[in-house]
Amino acid sequence: MYEAFYGLREKPFSILPDPDLIYWCQNHRLAFAMLEFGVMNSAGFTVITGEIGCGKTTLVRYLLRKLDDQVTACVISNTPRGQDGLLQWIMMSLGQPFEGSHPALFKRFQQFLYDQFSKGRRTILIVDEAQNLGFEALEELRMLSNVNTDKQQFLQIILVGQSQLKDMLRAPQLLQFAQRVSSDFHLKPLNMREVGEYIDFRSRAVGSHHELFTDEACNIIANTSRGIPRTINILCDTALVYGFAAGVEKITAELVDTVIQNKAEFGVLPFGLQPV
Q: What is the number of H-type helices and E-type strands within the chain?
């Protein structure tokens, strides 16, 4: 809609995870370093947590791009709370038959891992939105990881989820699970300076040759979004629509204020001016 007006190849602030538009602030670099460390060092469990919209799924997509051909990776986003159905989802994500009783499925799962290992391949299971898993499902994952032996790593598991996941894993009943987590990181929101850099980076990444947002506009977006990238994207995308409609070349603080006021009055997200 506004891309041609602002000289952009594509929308810079889509809310869909886009590995091509990762802004590598220090926090995201550290999070990805821990992900990569877990993969390279055959960690049994790796855990990445963070607030909604902080970029966890985008980092996972980037990781999937970097994995070599000797890795079989599968991603589960529809996570059951109980153990019932979890192994079925895992088998389905691996492209394997998922019908049958739990013992039959486990035997098939175990054989799949052994076959992959015999071919010199590693298997990585990534569970996104893992905060939706209940204690029983997490315990089931721990039991599935027992397929690994003292010297052979057949399966690696990466859990990605909101802050509640971190709280769950600290519960006394999951102590055995927590003891198997060898790589973990909590992804924090962007600070005030990083929000401005994020907006400028994504604008220039899709073809802008000048700053589309004033410093004052970026500061207001930082305060309102609390540094959450997905919320920043929503505000910036809407501001560019308003800017295009008004025929202005640069997004000002006044225009962003109008966007926020309209969203506060008519939108569904609870926007409020809060410091980062």
A: 12, 5
Q: Which fold has domain 190-266?
A: Helicase, Ruva Protein; domain 3 (1.10.8)
In this structure, are residues 13 and 237 in contact, taking their beta carbons and an 8 Å threshold? yes
CB contact at 8 A, 148 and 114: no
What is the rounded CA–CA span in Å between residue 212 and residue 230? 18
d(CA 71, CA 68): 6
Measuring CA to CA, which residue among 207, 257, 265 is closest to residue 235? 257
pLDDT along the chain (276 residues), means of 10: 95 94 95 93 92 94 93 86 80 92 92 93 94 91 83 88 94 92 94 97 96 97 96 97 96 97 84 47
CATH number of 26-187: 3.40.50.300
Domain with CATH 1.10.8.60 in the chain: 190-266
In 10 A of CB 209, how many CB atoms? 8
pTM to 2 decimals?
A: 0.89
Closest CA to 189 of 158, 162, 216: 162
Smallest CA-to-CA distance from 17 within 75, 61, 80, 83 is with 61
Cβ partners under 8 Å of residue 60, min gap 6: 17, 35, 48, 75, 126, 128, 158, 160
CA atoms of 15 and 231, how far apart (whole Å): 8
Buried b (16+ CB within 10 A) or exposed e, 83-102: bebbbbbbbebbeeebeeee
CATH 3.40.50.300 domain extents, the chain: 26-187
